[in-house]
Design a protein that fits this description.
Number of helices of chain A: 4
Shape of chain A: globular
Helix content of chain A: 40-55%
CATH topology of chain A: Transcription Regulator spoIIAA
CATH class of chain A: Alpha Beta
Strand content of chain B: 25-35%
Number of domains of chain A: 1
Number of domains of chain B: 1
Number of strands of chain B: 5
Helix content of chain B: 25-40%
CATH superfamily of chain B: Histidine kinase-like ATPase, C-terminal domain
Largest interface: A-B, 23 and 27 residues
Order of helices and strands of chain B: EHHEEHHEE
CATH topology of chain B: Heat Shock Protein 90
Oligomer: heterodimer
CATH architecture of chain A: 2-Layer Sandwich
CATH class of chain B: Alpha Beta
Largest sheet of chain A: 5 strands, mixed
Shape of chain B: globular
Distance between the termini of chain A: 37 Å
Order of helices and strands of chain A: EEHEHEHEH
Strand content of chain A: 15-25%
Number of strands of chain A: 5
Strand order of the largest sheet of chain A: 1-2-3-4-5
Radius of gyration of chain B: 14 Å
């Protein structure tokens, strides 16, 4: 299950469309980092609305994605964590540490746009 | 309506399959979406442990009854290397595979009842039960 990555100006949007296996998550990480380099993107949005669970492996991979992209000087925003998924993550003791999160794609884009217009 | 499922686990794809079946069974048993997600999360962690530490194993999901309540039982079993020090493995922050170290104590928090038995060289069996509110 490959995750489509859409280029939207200076940003990339990865929309997860179904439950992902560990291998799918690792593939997403590789593809995103590659695309950020290729397009010199300033920001990345990962939309996890369709994820059935965000378990320890998924959390760790999302953190890695954010850190790798940070090293390229770009920002990552995670959007669409469902309420029950958030509840389960907290129960399991998982956090996304300092990765910015937003309610949905629209708010994620607004976050990045605001960030990159004020620093221009 | 299937009240019991036995899922062989040997790859990351089986992890997804097992947790999806678990969620389905939980919803069939009338668990809330929130509890069904907790159950799916626990299954995901336990079945991944099987793949990471033992290579292969089995996850059994079963609708259960006890003192007038309905529940779901998860049994994750493998014949892998086993856990030498269960007390240590149950401590938050401990991991022997470079993970976040939240596996087993986290799963215990997700479940209402939790039991682990392991024998070095013989394998590990983790049993978790969640009761419907």
């Amino acid at each position: 299950m490959e995750v489509p990555i859409l280029k939207q100006g200076q940003f990339l949007i990865a929309t997860i469309q179904a439950a992902l296996s560990d291998a799918d998550l690792v593939q997403l990480r590789t593809a995103l980092v590659r695309q950020v380099v290729r397009f010199r993107s300033l920001g990345v949005i990962v939309d996890v609305t369709a994820m059935d669970v965000v378990d320890s492996f998924a959390s760790r991979t999302l953190l890695e994605i954010s850190r790798m992209i940070r090293l390229r000087g770009a920002d990552t925003v995670i959007v669409g964590i469902q309420p029950e998924v958030a509840f389960a993550m907290v129960q399991l003791g998982l956090t996304l540490e300092d990765i910015p999160t937003a309610l949905d794609l629209e708010e994620g884009l607004a976050y990045l746009q605001q960030k990159f217009t004020t620093t221009d | 309506m299937t009240q019991e499922a036995q899922i062989p686990i040997s790859s990351d794809k089986d992890v997804v399959l097992a947790r999806q079946q678990g969620r389905l069974l939980a919803l069939q048993l009338d668990f809330s979406i929130s509890d069904a997600t907790l159950i799916a999360m626990a299954i995901s962690e336990l079945s991944r442990n099987i793949v990471s530490y033992a290579g292969t194993g089995t996850v059994i999901l079963k609708g259960i009854q006890g003192s007038g309540r309905i529940g779901l039982m998860i049994v994750a079993a493998d014949a892998g290397p086993g856990i030498a020090d269960i007390a240590l493995a149950m401590r938050d922050g401990f991991s022997s595979s470079g993970g976040l170290g939240l596996g087993l104590p986290g799963v215990r928090r997700l479940m209402d009842e939790f039991d682990i038995s392991s024998e070095p060289g013989r394998g590990t069996t983790v049993t978790g039960k969640k009761w419907r509110l």
